[in-house]
Amino acid sequence: MQQNEKTSWAGPLQGVRVLDFTRVLAGPAAALALADLGAEVIKLEPPGSGDETRTFPPFRDGESHYYIAINRGKKSIVVDLKSEAGVALVKDLAAKCDIVVENYRPGVMKRLGLDYETLSAINPRLIYCSISGFGMNGPLCDRPSFDIVLQALSGALSVNGEPDGLPTKLGIPLGDLVGGINGPIAILGALYERTITGKGRLIDISLLDGLMGMLGYLAQLAFFNGEDPKPVGSQHPNLVPYGLFPAKDGSIIIACLTNAFWGRVCTAIDRPELAEDPRYDTLEKRRDSREEVNAIISEFTSERNVQDLVDLMTEHQVPNAPILGITDALSQPQAVAREMVVETEHKTLGKIPIVNRPFKFPGEQQPVPTAPPVLGQDTDDVLAEVLGLTPEQIEKLRADKVVS
Question: Which CATH superfamily is domain 17-214+347-399 in?
Fold first, then answer.
């Protein structure tokens, strides 16, 4: 793990301020991307336990692994939005911000008096991103959503799993995390538009829309064939060989995308004649002979160790990979070279490892992200620096239980 020397350049969004109403995963992932790009993200949390994920076990010294995972680089301020004074305080903050991100169900922010219409009247330049399971309209818009529900309704769950087996949930909660991809993309587009128009915009991000948008060629395959694609495990519906092959001490991934790669695979397994074999010399023929082709390759790989196969396939420029666990993935030389794990100083846990921001800007050296904040860690600083409140005013708000 490496720690960069701290510099003054936070990232390309330095100077952009975000008011973050999000909780759990989809919204916090979106705000996390903005923080990674250098924005100042002020995370609003309710009194008591704060973001629900602070209560998700397992814990270390009272801090949740879940919260720490997706809230690096942010500030935490505790405000009671059930009080008129709390809502008024947040409106004052919104007037000083460029972006609002929220992921409550449609209608909740309006009931709080913090909807786009209200806040944009205070700050016409405000970009307001609303992230929800199903978006602002449609028959499902009022329903709660969870990652597995989105995977099921999007079609993604139906194509994940082994052939002839039950559908299997994606190990990564992509149904939620898609909000952390599409939300920032839309926000950055609106931020650019604002440089031209001078006005902000309301953004409606549906997680279901986002996951359906990621179906990619599988959706087009259904349009072409009029049939639902079936799960193929680690294989590809149309490319062979492609997927997991057995080794003496585990498995290896081999991915053959073109005929050029097919020739390299044949040479690597000491069967160069197969490259010109009329049974297997096109993508379509190999797809239709999937079991035969996979059996030929499996016979070769099953007699060798994973590392030997990795070396062999790499030597022949065949796309391949061992199947790494999370710990090995984060400690592999490529991850180390890219500084994807760094140490940061947490207020209560001391030095902790965290996953680093995925954005790199050659020629610039950004500081290590600040650790995820403890609940309310930045309340006083935000109120003083953003709103210019005096210590006496802050103390009165605390005494009145508006902030904590």
Answer: Crotonobetainyl-coa:carnitine coa-transferase; domain 1 (3.40.50.10540)
Model confidence pLDDT, tens digit, residues 49-82: 999 999 999 999 999 999 999 999 999 999 999 9
* Strand duo 74-78 + 63-64: pairing: unpaired
142-145: long-range contacts, CB 8 A cutoff, minimum separation 24:
142/105, 142/106, 142/107, 144/105, 145/175, 145/207, 145/208
Strand partners, 322: 252
Closest CA to 187 of 208, 209, 212, 204: 204
The Cα–Cα gap between 322 and 248 comes to 13
**Predicted local distance difference test score (pLDDT) of residue 15:** 96
Q: Is the bond preceding residue 58 a cis peptide, omega within 30 degrees?
A: yes
**Domain spanning 242-324: CATH 3.30.1540.10:** yes
Pairing mode, if any, of strands 242-247 and 350-355? unpaired
Active site residue 176: yes
Name the active-site residue from 20, 176, 209, 378: 176
For residues 364 and 10, give the distance between their C-alpha atoms in angstroms, rounded to a whole number. 10
Q: Indicate the pTM of the whole model.
A: 0.90
Q: At 388, is the secondary structure helix, strand, or coil?
A: coil
